[in-house]
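Try it yourself: sequence plus magnesium ion, in.
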Amino acid sequence: MNPVEQLKALPKNHDFFIGIDSDGCVFDTMEVKQKECFCPNFIRHFGFQAASKYAREVWEFVNLYSKKRGCNRFLAVEAALDLIAQRHEFADRHIAIPPMTEMRAWITVENKLGNPTLSEKVRETNSAELKMLLAWSKEVNEWIEKTVHDVPPFPGFEDAVKKARQKADIIVVSQTPFEALDREWKENKLDGYVNFIAGQECGTKTEHLQYAAGGKYPPEKILMLGDAPGDQKAAQANGVLFFPIIPGHEEDSWARLGQEGLDRFFAGTFAGEYQKSLLEEFDKALPSTPPWQKKA
Ligand SMILES: [Mg+2]
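Structure, out:
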């Protein structure tokens, strides 16, 4: 059975369902992955060495400190290149910005944005641009494997998940490759808390929730947990509830979920005012305009 079919066939053992994002939500891995693995390889593969300071600023804004935080890596490339194209520092240095026309076409039609589908596309097209993109993506994975170790879950996660699993079926909903997720959850002995780990190979986060929970649980008994607007969108697209793990305040968020959020979810008092106040707080946590544009 392929992973999507496995996800669709997950048995329902409880009345409630919870989907949990992994990077930046359960594990404090966003900074080390983005700053030490994604960004240096983005600068090198895309040829931004001569403006590395600005390329780094853009990459970190998109992936850590903006409303795009946590988006799929290929969508992040598109967003970063669009911001780079608007910055004079690159034109001033006569740096060619790769147009990535074929990547832009691919990301609009492909839902399983990952190395397996990209490799297939490279075989099909023999495109130099897609080959470069794949080389970048593969090298990022290699660096993550070498670099990201011994990062435990946020304090408060285990207490909350222990409480959650008494009444809910739980899966990981992530845009990270499965092999990295599997390694991280097993390394921390957390894999026993979840029924399934869905990575980028299983489609978008919206699809993960739809495949695993859609039609099996009523929407008010489905909760998504995440640290990024993409997680919130996946919840909204499925008409289900969302609890934000707020970037910079993750420990407080997990404590709040364990002490208050889960009780409300199980008691049916989560929707409405409580949900609204959580979303308002989350909206304030991440900007959509880059700081260098505000200065201008
Ligand atoms: Mg995340």
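One thing you can check immediately is this: The chain has two domains: 3-28+154-285, 30-147.
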